[in-house]
Design a protein that fits this description.
With about 200 residues, the chain is of the alpha/beta class. It has two domains: about 1-25 and about 100-204, P-loop containing nucleotide triphosphate hydrolases (Rossmann fold), CATH 3.40.50; about 30-95. Helices cover about 55% and strands about 15% of the residues. The protein is built from ten helices and seven strands. The strands form two sheets. A five-stranded parallel beta sheet has the order 2-5-1-6-7, with helices on both faces. The longest helix is centred in the middle third of the chain and has 25 residues, at about 75-100. The radius of gyration is 18 Å and the shape is globular. It starts with a strand and ends with a helix.
């Protein structure tokens, strides 16, 4: 099995590229989706988050806005939250790999792959990238987003140019979707047929 780490900064199109891998038949583990599952109504972490941060949950599970107000800008609170969430997501990741152990290729979609050290547990890293002006335009279209909030988020992420420098493969999303899809499919075919080392050499 080849374990491919997929990452990219906010607004770079990582979710779109992850969907393209799925469309091509590649199993994808979505770390963000797993966090949402753990925090929704009946989720395994709801009661423990409420105990840590009273008033941040309700009938629908964790109120992400309320939780965000507790942890944004508060490094100690964020660390306590991460110590709760990361082990649960890690267990889900291991379960995913065990379920798909017979597959030739799987993808781990992890937003902070470099920042949190997840790159050490994959065979190769794919970074999704787009021009900075396009990233900004995409993100600022989101409800409730502001330039100040975007700067705060980017302050906790490795710069795009640094991610691209460390990547084994870079997939652009500042092009036509059909072009991005063609790159994804070519990479999948290469990895399945030749393996990481050969495809990495071609990419360079």
């Amino acid at each position: 099995m080849i374990v491919l780490g997929l990452t990219g900064s906010i607004g770079m199109g990582k979710s779109t590229v992850a969907a393209m891998f799925r469309e091509a038949g590649v199993p994808v583990f979505d770390a963000d989706a797993e966090v949402h599952r753990l925090q929704r109504a009946g989720g395994a972490l709801v009661e423990r988050i409420e105990a840590l941060f009273p008033g941040t949950t309700g009938p629908a599970g964790v109120d992400r806005g309320a939780l965000g107000r507790h942890v944004l800008g508060n490094r100690e609170a964020l660390t306590r939250l991460e110590r709760l969430i990361h082990p649960a997501v890690e267990k889900a990741r291991r379960d995913f790999l065990r379920r798909h152990r017979s597959r030739a290729l799987v993808v781990l979609d992890v937003p902070l792959l470099f920042e949190k050290g997840g790159w050490r547990r994959v065979d190769a890293v794919v970074v999704v990238s787009a021009p900075l002006w396009m990233q900004r335009r995409r993100v600022l279209r989101r409800p409730g987003m502001s330039m100040g909030r975007l700067r705060h988020i980017l302050g906790h992420q490795m710069p795009d140019h640094s991610k691209r420098a460390r990547a084994d493969f870079v997939i652009p999303t500042g092009v036509l979707p059909s072009d991005t899809r063609a790159i994804v499919r070519h990479l999948i075919a290469c990895l399945r047929a030749r393996g990481v080392r050969y495809c990495r050499a071609c990419a360079k």
